[in-house]
Amino acid sequence: AKNTLGTVMSEQGDLDAARKVYEETVGLKEALYGAEHSSTLVTKGNLAIVMKKQGDLDGARQQYEAAIRVGERTLGAEHPDTLIDKGNLALVMM
């Protein structure tokens, strides 16, 4: 539910609030499921999207790189979620 709240806030343009919600949600998911759980990785990707929108390209890059490392190891290099993070990382680096 908090992940959805972050998405709504982001879509409404409240990027600071969305970032805070995503950061809190990443922490909760890491505590509940672990840092390598697919749900945690999705929320990290959402956080990176908000960071990019805020102009925090270094922060977004770091989030995507971390998600890609874990995704390649746990989901596989060709998994759709891993590929999405790779594509989004490329956009951040353009």
Secondary structure layout plus pairing:
Layout: H1 2-11, H2 15-32, H3 38-53, H4 57-74, H5 80-93
Average pLDDT reading? 94
- Derived structural class: mainly alpha
Amino-to-carboxy terminus distance: 32 Å
Give helix % range.
over 70%
Beta-sheet strand percentage? under 5%
Largest sheet features: none
Q: What string gives the helices and strands in order?
A: HHHHH
SS field, number of helical segments: 5
Low-confidence runs of at least 5 consecutive residues = none
Question: Total strand count, please?
Answer: 0
Quick one: overall form? globular
In terms of quaternary structure, the protein is single chain
Radius of gyration from the alpha-carbon trace, in angstroms: 12 Å
Please tell me about this protein's structure.
The protein has five helices and no strands. The protein is mainly alpha-helical and 94 residues long. α2 (15-32) runs antiparallel to α3 and α3 runs antiparallel to α4. The termini are far apart. The mean pLDDT is 94.
Brief rundown of the structure:
By secondary structure, the protein is mostly helical.
Salient structural properties:
94 residues, mainly alpha, 5 helices
